[in-house]
Fold this protein.
Amino acid sequence: MRLSLLPLLLASLPAAAEPAALHSLPMTMQASHPTVMGTLEGGDEPLQLVVDSAASATLLDSDVVRRFQLQDPNARHHDAQGASAGGLALRSTRSVAMALGSLQLQVTALQADLASLSSAGSAPLHGIIGQDITARFDTRWDFAHGRLMLWPAQTLATTAPYCQGNALPDRAGVLKGFGFVNLRLGSEGVEAIGVVDTGAAQTILNDAAAHALGLRTDGSDTRVRARSKGSEGLGGKPTPTWLYTLPALASAEWQHPAVEVRISELPVFRAIALDQQPAVILGADVMQGGQVDISAGAERICLKR
């Protein structure tokens, strides 16, 4: 064989097959959140659980905690910050066995009132699966095919053009499991840092990002309109919010067409130290029909349409 033919032959070889997932669960959209079914020790009741890439801990609804008698009178309180203007003090539950399909694990969750996550007419949401579980794995949210897939750490290939290293490589502590990506906003390509948040129903820009795009929220900008309900999370106190149609959104080779986003200076931007620069909560609205891979420990992130 002539050596000059070798590159051609190598190029024609099929790509290595992706290894089978260690755990693969059906995933559905409930109230605009990706959810899987799970059960707790002591009952066969199916629980609807949001799989949230930007939740640092697993939460269970207060009603579930009471029904399964998971209260821990000696538990300490934890401060949480999210979409609401007010913070939230959460108490740990006692440890309980949880099953997510073939995944069996022991969980100490946080107790919270999750009623605000459900929408009228939809099934109630019973809990949130956080990074304390997903960050152990290479995790895929396959919105296109309705699957949540988990592989052992460092199994998934993350070298495709639509993949990138974490935009905050020096993050530490509670931020270690967050997937931060570099974003380009609008036709101007304004640079921003985004946090991949599969638990957020809609993408949200902070004030610095809106300002960099030349937007005003004082009522003088016809491109922006107030959202009457604001943005409300677990704390129950809405944060003032505006709506704007962002002409384009991109990250590495991933691109999304025009999409309506929120503008809101949520407390979480300050909590993750992104309140002084253009920043975005990248919600599930721009992920639907595509795929999100976050490697164990959020070292690399892949956004695919």
